[in-house]
Amino acid sequence: MSSAVPVELYRTIERANACAKAAALEAAPAASFGVRRLTPADFVAELWELWGDGRALVSADERKVLVAALLREFAAEARLSDSPGTVALIARFVSNVGCLLEGQALDETSFTARERGVLALAAQYCERLRGAGLVEPEQAAALLSDAVASGEVPSPCVSVVDAIEAGAGLDRLLRVLDCSPKPDAFVLPTLAEGVEPALVMPAGPTALAGLLLDEITEVASAGETALLVVSPAPDRLFESLAAPLSAAGVSSALRCSRPFEETLTGCALAAVADIDGPHGIAAATDFAYNRLSGVPGRDAQRLNREIREDRTFEGAAIAEKLRLLSPTFSEFQRIAEVCAGAEDARAAEDALRALDVLAEWVKGVDVLTFAEKAREAAALAKAQGLLAACVRIGAWGCDLAPLLASASVPVQVLAAAEGGATVEFASLDRLDSLVPRSYDEVIVADCSQEVFPAKADRTALDGLTEKLGYARPADEFERERRRFAAAMGAAKARFTLGISQRDEKGEETYPAFLLSEFSDALTQSHPPQSALAGKGADAGYSEFDDAAFGLPVALSRCARRGGEEALVGGIGQSFAALCGKEEVPGVARGCLRQLNLADFLKKAPGPDGPVAVLSASAIESYLSCPYGWFLKNRLRPEAPDEQFGPAEKGGFVHRVLARLYDGLAAEGVARVDEGNLAACEGRLDAVFDECLAEQRRERPGSGRLVARSKSEKVEVERLRGQLHTTLRRLATMAPAYRVHGHEVAVAPEDGIDYAGFRLNGRADRVDVDAEDGRFAIIDYKGSVGSDYAAAMREGDEEVPLPGRIQADVYAQALRRRLTDLHCAGALYLSYSAKRRAGSLVGAADATYDDGGLLGASSRVPLNFEAYLDAVEELAAARLAGLLRGEIAPSPRSSAACRFCPALDCERRLS
């Protein structure tokens, strides 16, 4: 760099280029060649390339990777957390200050233990940096300042045009060159002459897009051709407004950044990394549905169903399925493995080649739009940058995944239209690059306190920086003022502010501190008149409207306002008001207006025509709550995932007990009692192990019990202990009864009806006392409660309908099959009850010998078969509503709501 050529320093390269262009247009063409316009980083880089010591300037990616690698090694020793936030803080510290301390002796007693840890890590960083032949730009600037001061390097002619942010090294160099940035306080200026202020005030965020559409199209129709909309979420505004603006002849452009983790590339890498974790099935599904997987939609659906229905799928098996289906999975897997901790250069280079393969694949794939391809190419380039930094500096073992997830990816999209006007939607960092009078209208779409916060952005290391004798970072208030002033100055004709009265949560919003300063600036000048100003343009600017965030009344009178009541106009494609309407009958929960429910029930032939078929559990469910029955038994909203829960445990228990008793009966053992209990317990263990081994061979989704984790295996062993306790209790219960059968089927073709419906199901267990001619139904349950009991007292004449009636249903049904026996009990046995008393509930007559297991509320003080008849009559009266389509919510107890999927039901009982 020649010292004779003057250099001007700008905040961003966009401002530098724009000023060079303006100089070329306004002066003689040759004048633009007489000045070099650079950013501070470019200025230091050029000087260092000419006069440096041969080391290369470290890049931002190299810095992050090296700091992350050091944190992984020394985080515990330095008392620091190994997290992306810590990496960002320390990277900023070593960049601005840390490397300037190299070789300095510090008094450690003036620092806290954690600060000493940061300084020790910074020293390690400098040592590694020098070993890799790299140098920090701020350190290079400090070395250059010494060389300029000593005369070893000629002093360039430099001037600072913008309010640049200079670190300690650059500040030292600029002071030597006598052009250090002035620390004068910045005051918000007034609007330039000829620029009209305007205001957009939606009642809430839903109305914002429609008001902006009106504002943009009106300004464009007035002949203005270049507009800028700055927003914290410009991509959402672009997606909402690009189509209607194009229809109005206005082109749209999007210029923003998105988090890497929200790109398709980021989502795919995160999914692949999680396949071996506890949520591997969900991760595999996410990857299969990701458009970068290359898996056709039908294959993705099939894979989703297959792996969710089978709990035995482990990470390796899932990965192999994806490898066969996806043309990109192997590349993503290789990259994810390296990002989790690259072991050597070869692994990182393999991942770089995988990224190249993905980049080529993205170019040729037809499932992405042009804009999406550009975004994913940028995301892949970001990953390549970090991996390449690992290779260059040899920083192995650091976890790159969090660094990638917190990175940002540039996004640029253009939606061209036939008209001459163009509106650019950009994020807030665009304010740092604006140049004066570059847009006809500038719209700052959100001026709330959330966007321009009234707080200093101080980090945990700013105090350490001051202790070391370096200046604290720039004042955040001043930085926000300069950005806002840049937006004001960029407008040639109109400057518009937008602020919603409420946020997306419906909470009241608060204006940024800049609004009051902007209002003060407006009072110092008279706004220009224009056709767009409206009737309020002649009002004075000395009165303020508290309802419009304290802005001048003249401005609030001209504000565009929109209410959230125009919801369709605010979120629709055309942002137009409703042009017609159609009356729709009010929706009533539990009311079928168009369907005859009886048509959707299974039928069986009966003497008087077809009879609807129901299971005992369905009957019980409808009696508990008709709406709950409809949701669970007809709509069936459950997910396809194979579970490890009460239903699977219950099915396994039924199988173990059935096989145990059937095996004992085949060997001539009539019942388990105190005499053979020890031998039967040994047999129980053998049957338990045998049934458990069979579970993995069962068809996925059949209700099998498959334990995957260590905790689930502990639950299975706990279940074994519960069955031993149950067997000991059964050995003392009803000594006169023998097991007659397990899983006793009642099929529709048997012709057994209950309460007007044909019965279909299986009774868990039937015990028979042949000598007295009686039988009892035993239904195994994991747990039982008071709603299982008959709840009758001596002297009661009316029979209440129990909360649980499955056992009553099977008892009544088998009376019609076991005609030579009388029913003595319809009972529920809890195999997980901790106490003996109360582990058996339900309904039984006074003669049933329960062995001390049955509670008093389960005794029926009348003829037991008359009790069963009364229960059936009560059930029939309620079930008649089912055939009429009555499914309104009507829970009989909180138990009916416990597992009901209708979480928003107004009748839900807590």
From TrEMBL:
Record's keyword terms, sorted: ATP-binding, DNA damage, DNA repair, Exonuclease, Helicase, Hydrolase, Nuclease, Nucleotide-binding
Pfam family of the protein (one): PDDEXK_1
InterPro entries attached to this UniProt entry: P-loop_NTPase (IPR027417), PDDEXK-like_dom_sf (IPR011604), PDDEXK_AddAB-type (IPR038726)
Residues of the PD-(D/E)XK endonuclease-like domain: 614-902
Top-level lineage group: Bacteria
Protein name (database record): PD-(D/E)XK nuclease family protein
